[in-house]
Specification:
It is a single chain. This protein is an alpha+beta fold and 584 residues long. The protein folds into 5 domains: 125 residues, Glutaredoxin; 156 residues, 2-Layer Sandwich (Alpha-Beta Plaits), CATH 3.30.70; 41 residues; 112 residues, no CATH class; 35 residues, no CATH class. The protein is built from 19 helices and 20 strands. The strands form 6 sheets. Strands 1-3-2-4-5 form a 5-stranded mixed β-sheet, with helices on both faces. It has a 5-stranded antiparallel β-sheet with strand order 16-15-17-14-18. The chain has a 4-stranded antiparallel β-sheet with strand order 7-8-6-13. Helix 5 crosses helix 12.
C-alpha cells in the first residue's frame, strides 16, 4: 500500500470501522477511494482531486482513501483490483464509479458537488447496499454464469454420448450373439424354471442372471440410444425396485438377439389355446406365463392451486352478499368443497412383464451397465473423468499471495506456470514454480496462469477475490486454453522433482567376445585359474561399481529443455528470456 505524504494531506487515510463511521459524519460531499491492500489507492487521480477541491469544493468536498480489507462496511470490495469510487452525503451513498477514467470522475464529482451544495434530492442507499450499477454488473455476471453452465452441460452430454457410443460399439463387436431381457417387478427368481420353457425351442441359453436395483442414472445410460425405451411413467415406478435380468446367448443363424428375444417375450406373454381332450370337451384358454402389472398412481392436476384461488375469491364475493339469503350462500360453498376434493386424480400405469430392446446397441448398453463382468476380457475399465476446469490469470506480482493457495490446493489447482502474457497464442513460458520465477528478471507484464478445477469448494470464490486479469468463460473454453498453456509435455515442478529422484533399473553388463568367439569372462577365468563361483562373485562386485550405461549429465546442471512446453505453434521450442536464445 502506498502512503505518500501528499495523499495524506489531501485525503483522510481510513482503515478501521471507527474511523470510517466518524468520517461519514462530516458534512458536504464525501468521495471515498476504496482500495485493496495489494494495489493501494489511486495515486494517478491525486492531481485532479486536488484541483477540484481547491477550485470548487473547499470544505464542502471531503476526500478519503479507505482500505476495504479492514472496514466491514466495504467488505464486498475487498481484494478487487478495479478502482472504486463511492460518493456519500449525510451518511448515505448516492453514487458509485468503477475504473480510472479521469474525465468521468471529475464530471461526476462536479455534478454531485453542485447538487449537494444546492441541497437537491438524491436517491440514497446504505453503504452496504448494492447500487443499480452493481446490480446490473451482478445480473450480467449471473447471466454469463448461466450461459457457461448451459454450454458446459451440453459439452458434458456430448462427451458422455461419445463415450457410450464407443463402449457399446466395442461390446457389439465382441458379443454379437448376446442379448438381455429385463423382467418387471412381478417376476422373481423362483419363476425362472417356468421362464425357461420357451427358451429351448428358440435355442437360446441363459449364461447369467441377476437381480439389480433400478436407479435413474443407470436407465439414463441404458436408454441413451434406445429405439423402444420404456415409458417415463413406467420407469418412475421401477426406481429402487429390484428387477430380474437375464444374459442370453442366441444362435445367430436363427436371427439377431433382439429379434430372437422378442419372439421369446411373445411366447411368455401370449394366451395359449388348449384343444379339447378326453377330460375337456371344449377348448381351454391358458393364461400367459407372465402378465402386466397394473398400478394406480395419484396425480395432481396442473393449475389446481390457481383453480382453488379462484374458488376462494368466488366464496368471498358470496359472503359479501349474505343479505341474499343463507340458501344461496350454502349453494355457493358446496361447489368449492367438491372442486377442492377433485384437484387430484388417479392415473393407471401398466408395467410390462418383460422388456426387450429392439436394437442391438441398447442390449450392449444393458451389458455395459449391469453385466460389466462379462466384458473384462476386451473392455478396459472406465477412465477417471477429468474434472471440468478453467484458466485463471493474475499479474505475476501477486505470486506471494497466491503461493500459499498453490501449495495447499494442489488437487484443485493441478497446474500453474509463469508466462509473458495471458494470451495462449503468443505467451512464452518462463517458469513452472514461484521459486524458479524469483530467480528470473521481473517484468511487470508477466502473468501467472492457473489451471483450476471447477469443483464445489471455496477455491474459485477465494481466487476470484484476488482479482484475476482473466477467467475462462466456461469449462469448454477453459479446456482449450489449458491445453495450449499446459500441453501433454508440460511438467510441473513436482513432476520434475519426482522424475529426478526416480530410481532407474540397472542394465545388465554386456559380455565382450574374444576373437575366437568365446566369452571374455570365461577366458579370463580359465587363464587365472579361478573357480566358477569365485568368478561370478567377482563379476557381481564389478557390476556394482560400474556406472549405468547411457547415463549423462550436463555440465551446467540446469533443467533439460524437454521439460518446457511447446509454443502455441506446436513446435517443441521455447525462448529462455535470460539468454534470449530460442531452442528447438
Amino acid at each position: 500500500m502506498a502512503k505518500k505524504g501528499g495523499v495524506q494531506q489531501l485525503q483522510a487515510d481510513i482503515s478501521t470501522d471507527e474511523e470510517f463511521e466518524k468520517f461519514l459524519q462530516r458534512s458536504g460531499l464525501l468521495v471515498l477511494d476504496i482500495y485493496s491492500e495489494w494495489c493501494g489507492p489511486c495515486l494517478g487521480m491525486v492531481g485532479s482531486l486536488r484541483k477540484i477541491k481547491l477550485e470548487l469544493g473547499g470544505d464542502n468536498l471531503q476526500l478519503a482513501i479507505c482500505k476495504a480489507g479492514s472496514i466491514s462496511y466495504l467488505e464486498r470490495f475487498n481484494k478487487k483490483s478495479e478502482p472504486t469510487w463511492m460518493f456519500v452525503t449525510n451518511g448515505k451513498a448516492i453514487n458509485i464509479m468503477f475504473g480510472t477514467d479521469v474525465p468521468k470522475l471529475v464530471a461526476i464529482i462536479t455534478k454531485m458537488l453542485q447538487s449537494t451544495m444546492a441541497k437537491e434530492f438524491h436517491q440514497c442507499y446504505e453503504i452496504t447496499e448494492l447500487q443499480p450499477i452493481e446490480l446490473e454488473q451482478q445480473e450480467v455476471t449471473n447471466k454469463a454464469l448461466r450461459l457457461a453452465e448451459s454450454i458446459e452441460l451440453e459439452e458434458c452430454k456430448r462427451k458422455r454420448l461419445e463415450h457410450l457410443k464407443s463402449v457399446t460399439d466395442c461390446i457389439m463387436q465382441n458379443l454379437p450373439d448376446i442379448g438381455i431381457t429385463v423382467f418387471g417387478p412381478q417376476v422373481n427368481r423362483e419363476m425362472f424354471k417356468k421362464l425357461s420353457e420357451p427358451a429351448d425351442p428358440l435355442k437360446i441359453q441363459c449364461k447369467d442372471r441377476k437381480v439389480f436395483p433400478i436407479t435413474p442414472s443407470d436407465f439414463t445410460t441404458v436408454n441413451f440410444a434406445a429405439e423402444n425405451p420404456l415409458a417415463s411413467d413406467v420407469i418412475e415406478q421401477l426406481y429402487d425396485k429390484e428387477l430380474l435380468m437375464c444374459f442370453w446367448k442366441v444362435d445367430e443363424a436363427l436371427g439377431s438377439p433382439p429379434n430372437i428375444l422378442r419372439q421369446y417375450a411373445h411366447e411368455l406373454t401370449k394366451d395359449t389355446i388348449k384343444p379339447p381332450d378326453e377330460f375337456n370337451e371344449e377348448e381351454i384358454t391358458v393364461q400367459p406365463i407372465i402378465v402386466p402389472l397394473e398400478i394406480m398412481v395419484q396425480m395432481k392436476r396442473k393449475g389446481s392451486e390457481k383453480e382453488a384461488e379462484i374458488l376462494r375469491v368466488d366464496e368471498l364475493n358470496v359472503n359479501m352478499e349474505e343479505d341474499k339469503g343463507e340458501v344461496e350462500i350454502e349453494a355457493a360453498e358446496d361447489p368449492y368443497d367438491v372442486k377442492l376434493e377433485n384437484t387430484k386424480n388417479y392415473k393407471n400405469v401398466r408395467i410390462p412383464p418383460i422388456w426387450v430392446p429392439s436394437d442391438q446397441r441398447t442390449h450392449a448398453a444393458l451389458i455395459y451397465t449391469y453385466f460389466r463382468g462379462q466384458t473384462t476380457a476386451f473392455l478396459p475399465p472406465d477412465p477417471d473423468p477429468e474434472p471440468p476446469h478453467i484458466v485463471m490469470t493474475f499479474d505475476a506480482y501477486k505470486k506471494k499471495d497466491l503461493d500459499i493457495l498453490l501449495e495447499s490446493w494442489q488437487e484443485e489447482i493441478p497446474l500453474y506456470g509463469f508466462f509473458t502474457s495471458d494470451n495462449p497464442q503468443t505467451a512464452v513460458f518462463i517458469a513452472n514454480s514461484v521459486e524458479k520465477y524469483n530467480a528470473k528478471p521481473y517484468v511487470p507484464t508477466d502473468k501467472i496462469v492457473l489451471k483450476v478445477n471447477k469443483v464445489k469448494t471455496q477455491t474459485l470464490p477465494v481466487l476470484m477475490a484476488y482479482g484475476p486479469n482473466y477467467v475462462s468463460a466456461n469449462s469448454v473454453i477453459g479446456h482449450e486454453e489449458a491445453c495450449q498453456f499446459f500441453p501433454d509435455s508440460y511438467k510441473s515442478a513436482l513432476q520434475e522433482e519426482a522424475e529426478l529422484h526416480a530410481v532407474k533399473p540397472e542394465k545388465p553388463k554386456k559380455l565382450k567376445k574374444n576373437k575366437k568367439g568365446a566369452d571374455a569372462e570365461n577366458t579370463r577365468k580359465v587363464d587365472v585359474g579361478l573357480s566358477e563361483e569365485e568368478a561370478l562373485q567377482e563379476s557381481d562386485e564389478a557390476a556394482k561399481t560400474t556406472p549405468e550405461e547411457g547415463a549423462s549429465t550436463t555440465s551446467s546442471g540446469e533443467d533439460s529443455c524437454e521439460s518446457r512446453p511447446p509454443t502455441a505453434d506446436g513446435n517443441n521450442s521455447f525462448t529462455d528470456r535470460g539468454s534470449g536464445v530460442t531452442t528447438k
